[in-house]
Structure formats: C-alpha cells, structure tokens
Amino acid sequence: MATTIPIGPYHPLQEEPEHYLLTVDGEEVLDVDVQIGYNHRGIEKLSEKKTYNQVPFLVERVCGICSHSHPYAYCLAVEDCGDLEVPEKAKYLRTLIGELERIHSHLLWAGLAGHFIGYDTVFMWAWKYREEVLDLLELLTGNRNAYAMMKPGGVQRDIPREHLEEARPILDTLKEKSEMLYNAVLDDPVMKARLEGIGVLDEEDARAFGALGPTSRASGIPNDIRSDFPYGVYEDLDWKVITRDAGDVLARVEVRLLETLESIKMCEQIINRIPDEGSIDSEPKKIPPGDGIGSYEAPRGECFHYIKSDGTNRPVRHKIRAPTFMNFPTYRSTCIGETVADASIILASVDPCYCCTERAISLKEKDDVNLLELSQKRTAEIKEELGLELSPLEEVLDE
Amino acid sequence: MKPSTFKEELTGRFGWKLGETEEKETRLYITPKPEIFEDLVEVIYEENGGRLATISCLDEEEIFRLLYHFALDEHEIMVTVKLPVEKDDNPSTNSIARKIPGAEWIEREIREMFGIDFEDHPAKKRLLKAESLEDDDYPFRKDFEVEDLEGD
Fold this sequence. Notes:
heterodimer; A: Cytochrome-c3 Hydrogenase, chain B; 2 domains; 12% strand; B: alpha/beta; Beta Polymerase, domain 2; two-stranded parallel sheet; 3 helices; 7 strands
C-alpha cells in the first residue's frame, strides 16, 4: 500500500526551505513531488529598478555560496550586449576568485554528502579545509563570501602581489589534503556501499532534462561552459574537463573532488601569470539597446543571465536561471524506484544550492592553550561526574 | 561552427520563413514565422543537440515575447528563438515540455510569473509563487507593483 511522507518545508536536515512529498510503498520510492518558492525574493523584478553598476551587488545576494557566479554571469551578459572589452588583468582576477569559489563550494558539498549518509568524519575534514579557502578569499577580497569584485567591464579592486603570494602555501596544503580526501573517499568501503550504483542518471535523461555542471559530467556529457563558451582566461590555462560515465552518486562525488584538484592547479597558474601592471576596469559609459546573454560555469553548472537593454541606464528585463533549476527535476529519473534511505543523498547529489554565509567565531590556538587537551580534559570531567572509569591518559589530564 | 554557417543551414531548410535574424560572435537570434516554430525547435534540439538553457519572457507594451535560449555546446553557439505571444485575456502558446522534459519547470515558472498559459503542459500546478498571491496575480508583469502587496 502506498504511503506519503511529507518532508519540509522546514526540516532539521535542510538548510533551505523546500517541500518534498515522497510516495512510498514500504521502502521503495514510487513518486516525488516538489514544492519550492519559499525563498523567492523577486530579484529579477528588483533588478529592473537598479542601474547597471548597482545590479552586481544585488545578484551577489542570490546565493551565498555562488556569490561570485551570479555577478560574473550578469557582467558577461552586459558585456555581450554592449560588446565591452575587459582588460587582461581583470580577467585573471575574475577567474582566480571564480576558481577559489569552486574549490570551497565543492568541499562544502563533499562535507554535506558525508553528513547526509551519516559519515560525519568526511563532513569534518572537508569543512576544515574549506575554512582555509574562505580565509584566503577574505585576505584577497576582504570578504569570506559576497566578494563584491565584479562590475561590468572589469573588477572593483586590484589584489596586491604580496597577497597573491600568500595564497601559494595555502594552495599547496590544500592540494595535498584534497588528494588525501579523494583517495580516502574512493577507497572507503562504506562510501562505496552507500553511493555506488545509487541514483543513476543516464546520458539520455541528463540531456533531456538539460542537466548541467558536475551532474551532467558525471553522466558522461562533457558539458562545461569554461571550455564550450570560454570567458575569463580559461583558454590560456592548462586544465581538463572531468567526466565520468557511471552517472551514479559516486561518480558525482568523484567529478567534484577531481574538479577541486583541477581548480587548485588553475589558481596556481593564474598566480604565476597575473600581470602586475595594467588597468582593471574599462569603465563603460553606456549600454546600447539590445540583448545580452551571460553564461558562466558556476560550481553547480551553467549560471545563465539574460538582459534586455533599451539604451537607458538600467535593464528593462533581467532573467536569471540558476543551475539547480535545471538539475533538480532530474530527481524524477534518479529517485524513483530507490529506497527511502537513499532518497536524501540522491536529492542532495545534484548539490541543490544552500546558503550559509554566517560568519563563524575563529578560535586560534595560543601557546599556552591546546584545544585538543582542553577537549580531552572536558571529557574526563564529564566522565568523572557520571562516575565512569577514566582512561590512563584522562587520569593524567584530570590531575 | 560560426553562427552564420548555422543560419545558412537553417535558411536552406526553412527559406524566407526563418524570418529576421541577428548574429554576434557566438550568438544567433531568430524571429521565425510562428508556423515553423515547432519544426525549428525540433531541428535545433533533436538534430543539432541543442540544450534548452532557459526561456526568458519579456513583457513588452503590445505583446509578450518568449525567448527560447538553446546552447549548442558542441558547435559553441547560443541560439535564441524569439516567439511573440498575443496580450489578450488569456495569453497562450503551445508547450514544448512533452518534447523537452527540461522545459517543464521553466514553463511552469513563466505561467505563474507572467500568466502565459502553455497548452498541453503535463503539470499545470504551482511551483514557485507565494501562497499569499492569488492565481491571477502575475508578479513579473510590468503593471504589477511590488508596493501594492499587502502584509507578509
């Protein structure tokens, strides 16, 4: 007999409001219905009331994680409409921030994926390394998220050479740790058992639904805006599009982790090549009437912006299509027939866009305080309160 | 492939009915005669592997205009097919969601936000619009003022 399970719109496991209605027969998922829009803020409508230079600040707030992707796609649309030139240095700076954003977004997702299948070790490790990237972004742009770097025709601020040099050691460690994470995840029998052959999206369905980014690349489609419609400096960099044929959740994990490594490689090349001199803004004065399309490879897939100009200082229409809007409907092909326990990781495997821009308090280890020791001490105290036996180490610490 | 080469290919098929076109470096805009619209979409989608990126809807003074953006990733061209929709009591056009499953959510969004009915659409139910809005409130139309909204 079929039963329905409503999940959401507010649920402890979800960071964003959305409503799923699962129809199940025992363990098997028969149908999924989705209701979204709880977070609809009418940004497209608001955008029609802002000038071309104000819009980047607005679209930056579409998403906390892709806060470089939306302004970048918008600027590409404006530049397409007005045939604007972007200075070489600005292109390098834009691409650098974009790739750092991809690294932190993919690590964030890897952590969440671990969390969804109850493997919190992966969550802790992935998010620990992600912190370093966010701190690096703060050093380079002044903000961990919402970098406010983009403007039509260039970038808002330059990044000094000494700050760029500080990124090198961080990228080196990150590379080592990401490789470790990749190997650990793929060698792990638990991950394999939970993810292999689950939520398979075949190539035909991926094409039919118009799936994008890592979701389509894990189904064998080499669709990547960075190579198909190159913007920024991707044509000059040495990198490759990662694809996998399996189409299951494990393939999506693999694609994202390997892309993280590609992005680290690209960041290193950019830091080597970025010119020290040169303009960062072509200062466009007027956008002529016409259409402009901006297509940008965000961490989750193509971020698409369309603007219509009538020659005034603000767009008459600004259409935004985030990648999740195309990726999410693939659940009809991936979820049905699977078990309820796998549904959450399958739904999460397209990386639906979660916002989490709250700043954390940073704790630094001082010379006289060791955080690990503090934590062990506290465990010993609790054990004593409960009257449990202490381990030899804890006995030493407790004294 | 260059947009002009693709345009010539399409002109060979549809002749003068391809209507007005505009080209840029990697962009091609087409305003076809309405009767060939569905065949044109089929040629772009089925034969040339076009990926439906999205549909933009413009609220112009006299009409609505739907812009079907297809990305031909392999040929590296972005083709936009423009289709006007009469602005009457019940603006409507044919749905392409049965041919292209990826269009389903896109058409649902336009139906809610602009009030354009897509005939033969497989799931005409609400997806995005706030519960506090009536069925005939269309927030993205130009005559809809955000200031008119009450409460929440």
